[in-house]
Specification:
The protein has 3 domains: about 1-30; about 35-65, no CATH class; about 85-195, Orthogonal Bundle (Cytochrome Bc1 Complex, Chain D, domain 2). The protein has helices spanning about 1-20, 85-90, 100-115, 115-120, 130, 145-150, 150-160, 175-190. Helix 3 (about 100-115) packs across helix 8 and helix 7 crosses helix 8. With about 200 residues, it is mainly alpha-helical. The structure holds heme C (HEC).
Length: about 200
């Protein structure tokens, strides 16, 4: 009997120990060498821990070199402020990016992520947000004279800063992506009259 009791206590303890090592819910259980799962992450712009200070002033990443512009941000310094005056002045703003088929197709992909739910897949303002009556757009669609006569620069301004019930899309689209979307809007607006540009450097 006595042996059986000791055996029971031993088995019981083993079961408890075994259970406490098992992972469940938010408990990761017993982790062997946890530093293999939980990696060290330096705080942004601080690298003060010993052995980590590779960059000057203990920064975890370096600031861009002065006077440089990251890829895709070439016209980042968009000169027109968020104002009615800025909107009017933006009419003269253009891009060097060619209207190649590749650029327009990329614009289509982006449009079908960020724009179609309001303006509709074909640009007829029949996306679900408009159809359900949450938002109204003051012109018929991209084939309306208003859009046909609207300078690209003004569309760029609207995508960058927003206008009326359309919010800014600057944090979703890089400057070059904004142009690709604008070209796709143009292709929807002009239909068969839209002419693709040919260039050797397709992605310029
Ligand atoms: C939440 C719905 C919504 C989304 C998303 C949206 N728009 Fe708009 N858009 C509007 C509304 C509303 C207007 C009318 C703004 C006004 O003039 O008051 C507008 C205006 C425009 C205009 C005319 C701009 C001008 O200067 O008058 C263009 C072009 C346009 N949108 C294209 C786009 C593109 C391209 C995207 C995606 C990057 C987009 N929209 C995303 C609702 C939206």
């Amino acid at each position: 009997m006595k042996i059986n009791n000791t055996l029971l206590v031993c088995l019981g303890s083993l079961a408890i120990i075994w259970q406490s090592c098992t992972s469940r819910g938010n408990n990761p259980g017993y982790e062997y060498a946890p530093n293999m799962y939980i990696s060290k992450t330096p705080e942004p712009y601080s690298q003060l821990e010993e052995g980590w200070a590779y960059n000057p002033k203990g920064m975890s990443s370096r600031l861009p070199v002065k006077g440089t512009i990251a890829k895709g941000q070439i016209d980042y310094q968009y000169p027109h402020p968020n104002s009615l005056k800025g909107y009017e002045a933006a009419a003269a703003f253009t891009s060097e990016m060619p209207k190649t088929q590749e650029n327009v197709l990329r614009g289509k992909e982006l449009y079908e992520i960020y724009c179609w739910h309001c303006h509709g897949k074909g640009g007829n303002n029949d996306g679900p947000v408009v159809k359900e009556g949450y938002i109204g757009v003051p012109w018929e669609g991209y084939t309306s004279d208003y859009i046909k006569e609207l300078p690209d620069g003004k569309i760029y301004h609207t995508i960058t800063h927003g206008k009326g019930l359309m919010g800014s899309h600057a944090h979703m689209l890089t400057p070059s992506e904004r142009w690709k979307v604008i070209y796709y809007v143009r292709s929807l607006s002009m239909g068969d009259e839209f002419v693709y540009e040919q260039t050797k450097n397709q992605n310029k």
